[in-house]
Fold each of these.
Amino acid sequence: MDINQDDYPFIPYERDTYSPEDMIERSRRFYEYMDTRRSVRHFSDKPVPKAVMENIIMTASTAPSGAHKQPWTFCLISNATLKSQIRSLAEEEEKRSYNGRMSERWLKDLAPLGTDWVKEFIDIAPWIVVMMKRAYEVEDGKKYNNYYVAESVGIAAGMFISAVHNAGLVTLTHTPSPMNFLAKALKRPDNERPYLLLPVGYPADTVTVPDLERKALEDVVAYYE
Ligand code: IYR
């Protein structure tokens, strides 16, 4: 196929830049702000405006993606009947996972986090977002695979989580496994596969989180100067 780059004109791009001192200060502040994020398992049922969720989804959708295909769909759920249906299906799978499918070692690793198969937050959080990855697109009845789908949706999920934090809300990356039941319950088309379930809302009134420490810089960086 002949590709003429002139058919795809570029446009100028400008953005604010900062002095080295300001960069250090801004990046430090952002790190400290992000370091206040915690995964929360207990939510308040206090409503959150839909417009907030739409802004968060649009932020996530600014993520870079393979060939700019943006291979994601964010299912935005507030319907109580659907939430409770999803909860019972998730719990069915999770109960089996916690009671046999997960290894002893895995359960031991999870013990400090206080997780179990009960997923009450699916009923309680005002919004449940199910992120779908779009494996392919259909054009003129033909399937065209998307590119680097796992990488693309992973990046979008990170940006989603950051946007939730920026709004002053909390979320949790819930991964019921297997999660095919979600595609069915949400009547998604064949090209979409469930990727993550994220409840979003305010934390419950007296919420607690595990006393975790994050790795130090020297434990996560390898320098080549
Ligand atoms: N998917 C299950 C179990 C689970 C697994 C890991 I690894 C976690 O970090 C947390 C939970 C669940 O969502 O409960």
Amino acid sequence: MHKLRTIIFYLTLACIAAANLSFTLAPSYTKPRNIIIMIGDGMGLAQISSAMAFYNGINAFERFNVIGLSKTSSADNYVTDSGAGATAISIGKKTYNNAIGVDKDSLPQTGLFELAKKRGLSTGVVVTSSILHATPASFYAHIKNRRWYEDIAASLLNKQCDIAIGGGYQFFSNRKDKRDITQELQQNGYEVIIDSSEFKPIIKPRFIYMAAADGMPKMQQGRGDFLQKASLCAIENLSKNKQGYIMMIEGSQIDWGGHEMNFDYMKAELIDFNSVINMVLNIATEDKNTLVIVTADHETGGLALTENDKQHKQFKPQYTYNEHTGIMVPVFAFGPGAEIFGGMYENTAIFDKINQLMMW
Ligand code: MG
Ligand code: ZN
């Protein structure tokens, strides 16, 4: 009798243990089909607060329920550059400033785009800089130095990026190595469009669309709704893949306004980015299958909102510095799996969290 009771006792313990185990193993979140990472280059909280204070439309940042904080330091500097910043998200490892998709020993590491491609998903980048600039390049290239633009252009031939829209056509022909990357891409199944007039949507599974020799014009120079139209075009093409897609949309010039310590430049770029976030959130709300992550690689300019002596209900935007700073940046998440992006973590954790969600 005593023995039987002991057996029942241990069986009960085993059952409780098994129940707990299955509870911890079963993910409580839903796996998204698509992931849209939106990077406001140089977009800290001061940039968001100040630009949105001057904007009367819908504040896209207020549409997120899950908000986290990302620590942006690189492997060799408390203050990161955009190469190390985007690479941390793309490969999940801290690296040195100026690195593109390589670790601190300059070794290429498997990034989110490659992981996605291996599982049959499509990939894309849409930016207002050159498509070869540090932020987008970190997602599809593995290059030791962010300034080796001709090498970055050639690495599009590794086919890790199905769609790229932005500037940068000067690095595809008239090169030091005499190669014609436009032609090589076409031989590899890419449509290559070089057209700096108004953006025209196309339907193609694989294309490179370049609308400027290097970076795109500023909003203040009449870029208009390029980023919105280009992002929509990329999403429409990528979503034809029923396996899903992962893409990166960048508000590249929020950073450039900071380097120029020019508040109006930054503000116009951020308001443009805000409208693209609103569009992406509308799409994600409708399809219920898309995780949207909005973050920054770092803050630029040490922007402060100081007291305005003349108009007490307004502030005076003041840049303290024309370079990047080391303050944490926000992470906004929406859609299936968004809940795991709350909290405070290193920028590399964004890679880890995406991997965890996608079970890659
Ligand atoms: Mg950038
Ligand atoms: Zn910068």
Amino acid sequence: MLKVGVIGTGMIGKDHIRRMTSVLSGVSVVAVTDVDASVAAAVAAPLSAEAHPDGASLIASPSVDAVVVSSWGPTHEEYVLAAIAAGKPVFCEKPLATTAAACLRIVNAEVSSGRRLVQVGYMRRYDVAYRALKAVLLSGEIGAPLMMHCAHRNASVPSFYEKEMAITDTAVHEIDMVRWMFDSEITATSVLIPRKSGNGGELQDPLFLLLEMANGVLVDVEISVNVRYGYDIRGEILGENGTAALGSLSPVSVRVGGRVSDPVPADWRERFIAAYDVEFQEWIDSVSSSGSPSGPSAWDGYAAAVASDAAVAALRSGARVPVSLVSKPAFYSPSPSSPAVAV
Ligand code: NAD
Ligand code: ISE
């Protein structure tokens, strides 16, 4: 039984605790902490878990085998570095850290520790539809990939959401996904600014992101975060001989009153609920059996952060911004990291 401590018991922290305590196997949540001590205490009580005053004491607790970091992005670096120093596996929600320099410090600390300990919460790699799309691509059926068209649409975002978060908080999922999908790095980014939606108030929404990849594939991502009608994630690959796209994910189609309608998920929790379950079960199983995670690595977190930083620079300047990574430590080969595709 893997004994896990959770740092940050907000929206996704609570959801991960729910899945670890009610859905998945081989795991128990033994400790929690949050800057809001009353929230942590309320979450800890029904689990009979330890409620810690801060992340450092949770990581140091002898009851904790492995750590989940689901606090705000700017706090991730400190906790991931502390977990590495303690020799404990750590699952960190995206982003690994809020700057590429901070991600590199994590990469260097992990390499020095000599053991893979870090996994980053890029859950699309575990989604049945993305895995099926990658299986078609690898089968060769549509030929060599040329382009990918993506849309990342949120029904709404909170009032603190700023223009650059469309890249750092939202499109960063596509940034990671295309590295995994095409097994190739991003080499340059550009951002175009369309007419502004009236639904977002002052926010510049939507944005149109272009990603150039080392293998020549060109990716476009529409990021719209106030579409109102639901949470809609799309992706279509154009190959030399055909196309492949994420299918409709609705389990039901209703025909009534002369119309056909498919329900649209409300938010990311609903759309990716099964992917988070698979992601966490694979993390629990790999950490329990080998002491190391098998999913997106600190290197993947670093590479996503460099591309995300470049896209923010492109948004600010209007220019095409190259993406340049440091040499990849052999420690992280092969590139980009697992999971393998279930065909
Ligand atoms: P949230 O604001 O609902 O929860 C964050 C929690 O962290 C809050 O309860 C806050 O009090 C706590 N916190 C802040 N600083 C802390 C600290 N120093 N120590 C302990 N607790 C602290 O936010 P959220 O939506 O749950 O997002 C949390 C993280 O998860 C973010 O990094 C976000 O990008 C990521 N996230 C990932 C996905 C995904 O699809 N993979 C979806 C949503 C959020
Ligand atoms: C949120 O933080 C997520 O990670 C969701 O997956 C994403 O769709 C949303 O835009 C982000 O705000």
